[in-house]
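Translate structure to sequence.
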């Protein structure tokens, strides 16, 4: 349930960022996480679409970014 809430929050922020054509950087930390990859996606019509992928960094965070750092 926590992942679903985080995914919805992340999608809302990313859609707002894309609508303004600005850059974004979203950092997420999930406690007791066992995965090393997090996919940001959305539903549209009858499909599911991946928008961005974040990998676990050395600080234990997932970072979505519109620019490469």
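Result:
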């Amino acid at each position: 349930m926590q992942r679903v809430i985080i995914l919805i929050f992340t999608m809302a922020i990313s859609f707002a960022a894309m609508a303004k054509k600005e850059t974004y950087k979203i950092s997420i930390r999930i406690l007791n996480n066992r995965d090393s990859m997090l996919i940001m996606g959305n539903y549209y019509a009858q499909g599911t679409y991946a928008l961005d992928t974040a990998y676990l960094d050395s600080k234990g965070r997932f970072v979505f970014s519109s620019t490469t750092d």
